[in-house]
Amino acid sequence: MNARLISVEDDEGGAAVIEIGGIEVTVMDCLGYGTSNQPYPKVGAVFEARFTCLFDDGTPTDWLAVFSGNPQQQQRLEPTGIWSYRAYGKLVAGSNPDDGLLADCGGPHIPLPIDVNGGENIGSFVAFNIMRLSVWRA
Hints:
By secondary structure, the protein is mainly beta.
């Protein structure tokens, strides 16, 4: 998934703002970590992004809560803090077979707080809380 780096704090692990599909999202900057062969993006550069999440420990993330939380079938991230969100998405297959299914939240494709595999779930709408959304170079 291509993203454009809008801004970044001086220190890795701080906040970064990226744009995906016309949507700006504030995330934890993990761009300098990992084993990607991509160069570290400069502000304004487009790069291949991958997301990870720290999920909200205070909210149950069982199957029913995730699959019944989006009756309006929305695809968006609702900010609840600096890099925390209420995620509303539609399940899509990840580009990497190891990704399993991801929530298309109107731009970013976000991992789920529960294990969801299988083609029969593609197209289902879900909702869940993200305590920290992080971006990495894919």
